[in-house]
Amino acid sequence: MPRTLSVLSFALCIVSAGFFSLPAWADTQVINLYSARHYPTDEALYSDFTKVTGIKINRVDSDDAGIIARLKAEGTASPADVILLVDAARLWRGEVNGMFLPVKSKTLEGAIPAQLRAKPTDEGSAWFGLSTRARVVVYDKLKIKREDVDTYEKLGDPKNKGQLCLRSGSHPYNLSLFGAMVEHLGAEKTESWLKGMVENMVRSPKGGDTDQIKAVASGECGIAVTNTYYLARLMRSTNPADKAVAERVGVVFPNQQSWGTHVNVAGGAVARYAKNQANALKFLEYLVSPDAQNHFANGNNEWPVVKGLKLDNPALLAMTGGSFKSELVPISAVGMNQIKVQQMLDRVGFK
Ligand code: FE
User: Fold this and answer.
1) How many angstroms separate the alpha carbon of residue 100 from the centre of ligand 1?
2) CB neighbours (10 Å) of residue 190?
3) The domains spanning 3-132+264-313 and 133-262+328-348 adopt the same CATH topology
4) Global pTM value
5) What is residue 161's predicted lDDT score, i.e. its pLDDT?
6) Which of 11, 50, 67, 185 has its CA at 20 to 30 Å from residue 140's CA atom?
């Protein structure tokens, strides 16, 4: 939001004014960050970067769609240096719309597996995955049998009628899951699956992932879908009510016997018209450092993209025993299927 930026800039001026002994170049050590990461624990991530590098961060917070719309409106005048988005299809959209500046970095290429980066061109990669999250099924352990919800396909099965709660089908997390399903099942079967889920719904889609988990715990819904970090947050909460919610629900990583659980990626890019390109790249490289990756995994309950990091997160370990099978679907395919999926949602009346 413009207000956030101006407030931060103002605060930055005051801070700079206070440190009058800093050399003149210190004023230029900033990056303008457009971030769709909506996690309070990330504050430590940003302040640690500033502590380590001396580079200040002016942050603009919005959701993925808001950031993409803003970059489009600002065009070449955009002050953005770095962009963080939390969904594969949106990263893909930013790339095809030319909003990112492809960059080469041995650090990023060495740290991030190829399938979690934009396909490199001669200029480099347009974006880099920094963490992943699994989209899993939660169910009421008192009412639902685990084997009735151990695949995504079963969520549309008539035996689960009157049990299912979902957030909006048009939310990026669901659009990406459904887009991946098109790759696994084909368009026709995906559409009947979506129709089956609409028929199984307890209520019209509403709320976020945490609301779905709570609705299962309260008994309103038997089955829901959530990103893993929302459940992990409840499991690790110091609030007894949150813990009780987490204890009531079972969790399934779907499709372990077939193609694997749907995994989404949160990632970053240097903005196409970045004025502080070198600092922007420094920030992305910082995000694959052991400290930052540890923050994603143990602070925000995501999976790190860097191999070899010790997972020290009791909630993630409890959910999976440490590892699970994840699907391998090209992110470009998930991105390209979005429009098709939205049309299916409209046809089957999935709000
Ligand atoms: Fe989220």
Assistant:
1) 22
2) 23
3) yes
4) 0.88
5) 98
6) 185
CA of 154 to the centre of ligand 1 (A): 24
Separation of CA 174 and ligand 1 centre (Å)? 11
Question: Could you report the per-residue pLDDT of 107-142, keeping only the tens digit for each?
Answer: 999 999 998 999 999 999 999 999 999 999 999 999
211 CB burial (10 A radius; 0-12, 13-18, 19+): middle
Lowest-confidence pick of 9-18, 96-105, 113-122, 278-287 = 9-18
Identify the band that residue 244 occupies on the pLDDT scale cut at 50, 70 and 90: very high
User: What's the rounded Cα separation, in Å, for the pair 297 and 316?
Assistant: 9
CA proximity to 308, closest of 294, 328, 320, 325: 294
Cα–Cα separations (whole angstroms), residue 259 to 46, 88, 173: 36, 18, 18
CATH 3.30.1460.10 fits 3-132+264-313, yes or no: no
Task: Please report, for the chain, the start and end positions of each structural domain, with discontinuous segments joined by +.
Answer: 3-132+264-313, 133-262+328-348
- Centre of ligand 1 from the C-alpha of residue 123, in Å: 31
**Residue 38 CA to ligand 1 centre (angstroms):** 7
C-beta of residue 259 within 8 angstroms of C-beta of residue 108: no
CATH level 2 (architecture), domain 133-262+328-348 = 3-Layer(aba) Sandwich (3.40)
pLDDT in tens, 306-346: 988 888 899 999 998 778 999 999 888 998 999 999 999 99
Rounded CA-CA distance 32/80 in Å is 5
In this structure, are residues 102 and 126 in contact, taking their beta carbons and an 8 Å threshold? yes
Return the amino acid letter for 138: V
